[in-house]
Amino acid sequence: MEGVVIPEPLTLHTADGVRIDAGHARGDGDVCFILAHGFTCSWRQPALRRIAGALNRHGGVVGFDFRGHGRSGGCSTVGDQEVLDVDAVVAAARRRGYGRIVLTGFSMGGAIAVRHAALHGGVDAVVSVSAPARWYYRGTVPMRRVHWVIERRVGRMAVRLLRGTRIAPTGWDPVPEAPHEVAERIAPVPLLVVHGDADPFFPLEHGHQLYDAACDPKELWIERAFGHAETAATPDLIKRIGGWATNAVSLAPGPTAPGD
User: Fold this and answer.
1) Local confidence band at 38 (pLDDT 50, 70, 90 cut-offs)
2) I need a labelling partner for 113 at 20 to 30 A (CA). Which of 89, 148, 182, 189 fits?
3) Keyword annotations for this protein (predicted)?
């Protein structure tokens, strides 16, 4: 992570036996940011390293690769079983003594962050940046390309060769709950939804749909001239996210599990 010393490489294992590659940068206090990257990305890439360095000023940081990405094992299910990856990382952060966990996801990682917080709980604040609110969206050229990559054998082969991302050849069965369908279950954990008005993948309606589906406490930031996810995130935006999260966890009553 750029600007951050990582004394502890982590190899974690999920409940279904997938090996997860991660790295932990110790920070002051008991707040830890867990960074959930976008599709075909990795916590080792410069954009995530830069974000991790900025957030490390607010607390500890754990970056990790979702299954099928980077140095992690398994195959990507593009938002379904990845909640188990997050579960393993949250547990690792808790074992290292962090009392407040901020789950921060970008694009696919934002959708997974919402689903994990809603279905598994155990975190103290959630930040979703540039996330889809619903599945199967094909309304933009970039998303039509993403679906080609996921759904076609030649697309899966191409993204494996070009990006090192391994995608499960079988589709969803059953289809997992979409982020907007479960967002209301995150409360009383605070949720921040961040979306750009220049996002080439998901238009603003996704940010609004996710925010409208959630319950208080929640906030929606519409960022002018902001494109998509981690690669477009400016230092100022990350600084503001760090400040929001620090304040949110200081006011939050603590993590809850689903059904509490």
Assistant:
1) very high
2) 148
3) Hydrolase
